[in-house]
Input
Amino acid sequence: MKTLVIAEHDNAALAPATLNVLAAAARLGGEVDLLVAGQDCRAVAEVAAAVAGVARVILVDAPAYKDQLAENLAALVVAQVRTKSYGAVLAAASAFGKNLAPRVAALLDVAQVSDVVSITAVGRYVRPIYAGNVLVSVESDEPVQVLTVRPTSFDAVAATGGAATVEEAQAEADLGLSRLVGRALSKSERPELGSAAIVVSGGRGLGNGDNYQQVLAPLADRLGAALGASRAAVDAGYVPNDYQVGQTGKIVAPGLYLAVGISGAIQHLAGMKDSKVIVAINKDPDAPIFQVADYGLVGDLFEAVPQLTASLAS
Amino acid sequence: MKILVPVKRVVDYNVKVRVRGDGSGVELAGVKMAINPFDEIAVEEAVRLREASMATEVVAVSCGPTACQETLRTALAMGADRAILVETDAELQPLAVAKLLKAVADKEQPDLVICGKQAIDDDANQTGQILAALMGRGQATFASKLVLSGRTLEVTREVDGGLETLALELPAVVTADLRLNEPRYATLPNIMKAKKKPLEVLPAGALGVDVAPRLRHTRHAEPEARKAGIRVADVAELVSRLKNEAKVI
Output
């Protein structure tokens, strides 16, 4: 059985999560091809060709795929599945993959499996439900297995060491069902939240957006960490929505997660409880975050965090 | 303009769910049920569009057992004009639900479908996208803002790097994210009024759709609980433990 992984990219760079999806694809056995569809995205295809474990990079370069619209991409993926007899299609359980995969599955008339965290064999998966409070084992006999996989649950494959061929494939018609008006993407020199080794996350305890930046940014800079936030902090307008860690935001599992002024609502815990080491700094000793923290510091974050930043400098 | 809003009856978000002893599923007996919170946001958005005279009718639809009538009454109390229950006691998976909704959409011919982005029970995040594909229409998932002008809908979406805005021609399918709006509370007079609004019951079997489950859920388990660690006395101890014990900095 051959598997097709859908590369996530912005026509310039391959998103790191794609390497985790490739690791999940390897669990299915068989050859793994990687679809890079976009416009002027040959550079992405060439980077992708060096990724370990990729048999072929399928490059489709056409205006219809420039903005990664689900309608056009889904039609393309289905055409690739039909002509090349793929038995599985995998994408990351990211905003991109979650938007695309169900549409692919619908056009193939198969059931999609969402947010897979474990693969034991083709058609044998585990996925979280009820905000991660329950893990369900899922069996599927669908002729094409369409999955979104949780990137943090699979260790990324090596970005180098592979020698895939790059094959160009035909674009499908532009369906014209939607068009991009514009994007307002956060620009940051920091690592991407979903794949960072260290995440510094702030909650309502910070009081406002200025405090969030003044207190947390120096610590994140010192640690080379990504910045995250609780839903409460996002809803209060401290930071944009893409900072949100939680069931309805991003799922992260860094080596070190520092939760600052975050009480630890269930929906937040669902997004970070698989982190290897969790540190909580909160003035409320009864905050639920302490129940999952490896190291808890009860105290005033406005004193503790600058101290922590300063002591890491020395 | 007619808006169709699919709503799902789920375990109330405040309930801590428990897995049945034999792992066959989640204990639902005696558990408080409610409208899926994302669907509530979808209903609110549709009702606001009607209140702003951008839409003429809001139709709520639910697929499932008789008890889903309660969920539909919630949508009616929030302001939906009428409701449809596609009634079945069978287990429904997202593909089956989307096919039933497609059959309803064929009958109702809505200009816009607004769904919640995912249900908080199975967390599948699929139904809106599948429905859009089955209808052959455009989709805008994870919406945080809708602007309708004529037959063009501009939808701002929450994506991983920030926000993006798409334009779609109606009919189209939108899925609602958290920040689209804050749903109203249904007032008592509106709850009373909702009891008199039309609620049509369609047997699922009459729609000619194969709803047989495609996936088997063989075992449910609670994830291994993370155990609480230790309290540190001060920042110096924290730094020392992170360096020497956890070795993460």
